[in-house]
Design brief:
The protein is of the alpha/beta class. It is built from twelve helices and twelve strands.
Length: about 325
């Protein structure tokens, strides 16, 4: 099958974030400072950041003329985040963009006043980042993912392609509150289906090797890989080990499928970064995060790698293929 029609995202706050010309920085006669804080290895989200910058350019901002970007990454070390957040704050940013729950938490602890915009994190209400999606309160807003729908869908898809699977792993990061929120939702769904799911740490190459050794020794049937940015740089290692052990897997980011993973069910991250630029634009024009509703994608893309399925000896049911938004031959 070739590429199938891609679904469009429906967002709760599209009208609030409608684009308008970029004039604030120019009329003030100064360049805006946009700080970014990541916990992944620097460069792991490069394609996403290109989308972010591209959208800013569409809104009339030129980097160097209208804004500067101060980027910091903890390179996977969460202990460095408070220091990096304080360092960014000393540069007097107009807005801070964060890419995970740990980075958002570090930015919030560094400042109660500078606007913070997060992108693509799970359960910001449950983890205490915002008061509600409609009325975030405080100095934080952004784009969120609701975990219950995701975790149920990953399990559903795995059972459709591997109906005998009963013992599953969740490759994640226990220190990330959003990952744990997704894990709790997943456990509830798994228990209802009489499945077992176990969290295995996977934030560096050594942990990933250990996780796959555990899955091999304890006869796991399949696994799900979390969306945490800190894991993304090791996607090729994960995909290769899955192929070696012939394990079906569902991924929370489509980059894994592009690297040879079996399937993903996830929002379009590049599009989410583009929409994050809309938030930054509004903040630079004077909007308060407390009054900007948190967006969440209402539709998600299912991407399937048929080449990988064949290599694993897995037949993808026609009913699943017909639901796919993109199929890699």
């Amino acid at each position: 099958m070739g590429q199938i029609r891609r679904r469009q995202f429906l967002f709760l706050a599209a009208a609030v974030l409608a684009a308008s010309p970029a004039t604030q920085a120019q009329t003030q006669g100064r360049r805006a400072r946009i700080a970014t804080l990541e916990d992944a290895r620097q460069g792991a989200l490069a394609e996403n950041w290109r989308s972010f910058r591209g959208r800013l350019q569409e809104l009339g901002y030129l980097e160097g003329r209208d804004f500067l970007v101060d980027a910091r990454s903890s390179q996977g070390d969460l202990a460095r985040l408070p220091t990096l957040a304080a360092e960014l704050l000393s540069l007097k940013p107009d807005v801070i963009v964060t890419t995970s729950t740990p980075t958002t938490r570090a930015a919030m602890q560094a400042t109660p006043t500078v606007p913070i915009v997060f992108v693509g994190i799970a359960e910001p209400v449950e983890t205490g980042l915002v008061a509600s999606l409609a009325r975030p309160g405080g100095n934080v807003t952004g784009q969120a993912i609701v975990s219950a729908e995701l975790s149920a869908k990953w399990l559903e898809l795995l059972l459709e392609i591997a109906p005998k699977a009963r013992k599953l792993a969740y490759l994640g990061q226990a220190a990330n509150q959003a990952v744990m929120a997704v894990y709790r939702s997943m456990q509830q769904t798994a228990n209802a289906r009489k499945l077992s799911v176990r969290l295995l740490e996977a934030t560096n190459p050594q942990e990933i090797d250990r996780a796959f050794e555990v899955m091999r020794k304890e006869d796991f049937d399949a696994f799900i890989c979390a969306a945490a940015p800190v894991i993304l740089p090791y996607r090729q290692q994960i995909v290769d080990l899955a192929a070696r052990q012939r394990l079906p897997a569902a991924y929370a980011r489509s980059e894994y499928v592009a690297a040879g993973g079996l399937l993903s069910y996830a929002p379009d991250r590049s599009d989410m970064f583009r929409r994050t630029a809309n938030y930054v634009h509004r903040v630079l024009q004077g909007a308060k995060p407390a009054k900007l509703p948190v967006e969440q994608p209402m539709r998600f893309d299912l991407v399937i790698n048929l080449k990988t399925a064949r290599a694993l000896g897995i037949g993808i049911p026609e009913s699943v293929l017909l639901r796919a938004d993109r199929v890699i031959e």
